[in-house]
Design brief:
Length: about 260
């Protein structure tokens, strides 16, 4: 992923929704001028977050994703939503097989578009690409977040047979298999960081440490918001994992994101 980035690979027109959705791969990627445009756009979009410091600390950010999907608002030309995702693999051990998974490394929706179909459309676009790759359709999805709203869709899917989500936030013990998987994934995505497998909390991992001025609120009074605000500080992140264990579960998720099964 170290090759120089060039022009945007593909654009999907969602102008009926008020924005256009773009997809970029490392092979097609961004020119230096486009990288500057994206960074400045996110700095403008999130004035309350330490976006300048974020990109200053993540000098290799544009080389660390396999898919970048972002939304440009029709009326303003501003970038208003973004998902960066990458494929990673856990090496086989004596007790566990090799495992490939998708990690959403960056996910932003500007406040005025939160609660709309934007996040669904972004993920729908990503899921529509998965069957076309030589990696196949992912069974494991991983996210590190301190935003209750980011975990909410995963928590909803946990009600579906054949889908298992980590962490459980109802006070019950974590399922053993998912806890073991979470420990392996934590060692892969955040080595040398303190990880509490019982809660899913990765401590002091925010870049920069004060990226968020305060924890995002989430939905008032919800169990998810209560869990986040009970266990995390602004410097922490929750390791969230969704495991699609059956073909039926996969079909349900694809249908939820309006993606036609391959």
């Amino acid at each position: 992923m170290s090759e120089p980035m060039r022009a945007v690979e593909q654009t999907i027109d969602h102008s009926a929704n008020g924005y256009q959705l773009h997809h970029v791969t490392p092979e097609d990627g961004f020119s230096p001028a486009q990288q500057t445009w994206l960074k400045n756009g996110l700095i403008k979009a999130f004035p309350d977050l330490k976006m300048v410091e974020y990109f200053a600390a993540k000098t290799n950010w544009f080389n660390e994703y396999d898919h970048l999907i972002y939304c440009v608002e029709d009326s303003s030309g501003d970038i208003v939503g973004l998902l960066a995702a990458r494929w990673l693999e856990l090496a086989a051990t004596d007790n566990s097989p090799a495992v490939r998974f998708v990690q959403a490394t960056t996910q932003f929706i500007v406040p005025r578009w939160q609660g709309t179909s934007m996040l669904r459309n972004i993920w729908g676009r990503f899921l529509s690409l998965a069957p076309c790759s030589n990696r196949g359709f992912p069974e494991l999805f991983v996210l590190k977040t301190c935003n209750p709203l980011a975990f909410r869709p995963m928590h909803t899917f946990a009600r579906i047979p054949g889908i298992e989500v980590y962490p459980q936030i109802d006070g019950s013990p974590q399922a053993h298999a998912m806890a073991v998987m979470a420990k392996r994934i934590a060692d892969r995505v955040c080595p040398d960081q303190k990880f509490d497998v019982d809660t899913g909390v990765i401590s002091d991992i925010s870049t920069p440490p004060d990226f968020y001025p305060q924890l995002p609120e989430g939905k008032p009074g919800s169990l998810i918001s209560y869990y986040f605000h009970s266990h995390l500080t602004c410097a922490d992140r929750l390791l969230c994992i969704t495991h699609l264990k059956t073909e039926r579960a996969r079909s349900i998720v694809l249908n939820a994101f309006a993606v036609k099964a391959a």
